[in-house]
Amino acid sequence: MKCPFCNNLESKVVDSRPTDDGHVIRRRRECIGCGERFTTYEKIEEIPMIIVKKNGMRESYNRMKVLNGIIRACEKRPVTMEQMEALIDRIEMTLHSSMEKEIQSEWVGELVMSGLKDLDEVAYVRFASVYRQFKDINTFITELTKLLNEKTPLK
Known about the structure:
Blueprint: E1 11-18, E2 24-31, E3 37-43, E4 50-52, E5 58-60, H1 63-73, H2 81-97, E6 102-104, H3 105-119, H4 121-131, H5 137-151
Parallel strand pairs: 4-6
Antiparallel strand pairs: 1-2, 2-3, 4-5
Helix pairs in contact: 1-2, 1-4, 2-3, 3-4, 4-5
């Protein structure tokens, strides 16, 4: 770390502690050359995620867009905002851990549906009906049948 006082490249860390939100580390450093102290902040560099839509268009990942879809699916259901936020946190963790810079929108949709299936089945069906663009009652019944078959083990 370059000293802001004498431009020496050698310093030692005197104190290190996380900030209040825990996402940044505050470090007090002492320059080996001049002995002056200065503060640096260290944070994780986040890779921006680009979502590739079905039509090939690309746009930046937008957490609020995903949250709004989940909120609409969970409307008038016994799902708390904390549960919805936790679902998005899990989805984002999965996306970030993939280390992909460009993510297919279909994958995000499947992650949302998978999370909603565990959270609330009615919300899952609501989201799936919009996401999978059910054209008629038969496709809707097919999806419900798959859901019922997963719940009841075969004999």
